Amino acid sequence: MLTLLEGMVYNINMKRLIENKLHEWKNKKDRKPLLLVGARQIGKSYSVLDFGKNHYTNIALFNLETSEELRGIFDNDLDPKRIVQELEGFSHQTIKPQSTLIFFDEIQACGKAITALKYFCEQAPEYHIIAAGSLLGSFLVKDFLSFPVGKVDRIVMYPMTFQEFLMKTNPNILPLIEESFNINKPLALHERALELFRAYLFTGGMPKAVLEWTDKKEPMFVSAIQQEILSIYDGDMGKYATPTEQVKTRAVYNSIPSQLVRENKKFQYSLIGSNARAVHYEIGLERLFSAGLALKCLKTKKGEMPVAGYADMTSYKVYMNDVGLLNAKLGIPAAALLSDKAHIGGEIKGALTENYVMQELTASGLTPHYWESDGKAEIDFVIQLDEKVIPVEVKAADNVKSKSLSVYVDKYKPAYSIRISAKNFGFENGIKSVPLYAVWCIK
Length: 443
What we know:
The chain is α/β, with parallel strands linked by helices. It is about 45% helix and about 15% strand.
């Protein structure tokens, strides 16, 4: 019997920005096999297949999770010539250098296939190879210790950003938002853009949830997909781990929403359970980071260059990889998110908004940190843009009063500050106002 996810057909118009990076990889003179990593259900396989269809004569697809016979090809020597010959026999198609895209999907299921990428890089660079995998499995695969460092190109993929959501739902508004961001000019379609943002806050960036929303606008079907994805993640936590490790990983993951709705969002192991200690649960948390299911935001001790150089490795906030899955775990009714008049608790709304901003900044290639001063003032995010260290304050609504930003500005004198809120674009008193729907413009 097909599940919702297995039975769903992708819409060919679902374009992703990852295609630009794949195109750059294909044209590199020193191209190596590409490892595309990220959580399950974010669209890795579809993106590779769509790219291959548009840029290669044929695609040789090999799902290493579903076939023991296929994995057996890598049990002998790792000579690329032999491997290609056996892959041709397995797939009943000819694999030609340059014109065939070899796609190893779910490569974390076969550690020796990962190791084989090294030999393709060294001995058969003429073959175009993309390997995709979810890191939760690969984190504990024994043969992953033979990871071909320096012999593969690597791209991290994330759930759909709000920019990609707009590419699907209202692409014509994108250049208007970008122009307003660049010149600090109010957007005439501000309320329309906020409405689209609220829809994204509900759907999140899982492609199948976005497709379900854009095709039918039925919240209950979107929620069903989100719950099924959470079930898939829960099942994945049982792979390559002992029963005890599984329980602890799930406990850490399930604690993230309640950690985020607290005023002090610093991750605390004690909140997982009365006897929880870091020494017992930190491996589970690292698995979540490795799998792309959670994002870590370290505290920085100073608002100075380089931000990472002042990181406090013992203090951090933990966010979920997708705001739609966060609201699904919190059980927020769709109407409460889709309407600008519905009441949601301030802590809940703040947690969703902050999680969303963390996702967007991370997907843009930034490494957000947070800053606090003796527990009296806290800046949600501190980012490094070129040679500037910029504080970023996040507000879920249009109430933008805050003492913390003034404390930070007095102490570090940044070139300017960014305030993300429901207010329109503007620039006043050294603060660049960025609406919630324009975080993707911060790069």
